[in-house]
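User: Please predict the structure of the protein below. I'd like the answer in structure-token form so I can feed it into my own downstream comparison script.

Assistant: Understood. Taking the following sequence of 178 residues as input:
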Amino acid sequence: MKRTVRPSVEAGITLIELMIVVAIIAILTTVAVVGYSKYIRSARIVSARETIGRIQMAQEGYFERTGTYCNATGAGTWQPALAAGFEARAWGTPAAAWNLCFGSRMKPDNGKTFFSYEVVASTAPHGLDATATSMGMRAGNAWYYIRAQADMDNQGGTYTELRANSQKRKLWTINEGL
């Protein structure tokens, strides 16, 4: 009787199977990183909105005491200084007008922020500057506006901006998806 010898089958995986597994892991990692980035961006925007809300409350309190709003930074001046890049920056020492308006109430708990803030208020006779006009505000009454900006795409070109003012009572977000 003749015996046939069968080749033994080795247990293992082929190179194609390994490449498929690596491709699946790469796709899952990409989806996770994109989702995490959106989550972080959203959390930072929520923090900026909360700071703007605190500034609005402080402005209304200041108005109740003095009959005018506080010009905390003036047009074109940011607290902390506006910078490219999306790393947390130290809050630093604010200008004297900022401290007069808000004291230390606006300083983040950990002393760092991702957004820079501009808080501009009307001066007599309550004319409007270009930014206030672009927000649809009306001249004649005391007013303020708040802008918060950050380089969300970390490329130094387009900034995500949040805006609020005393006349519209709403918050705008510009370029949120960047």
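That's the full token string. Residues 15-66 form the longest helix (52 residues).
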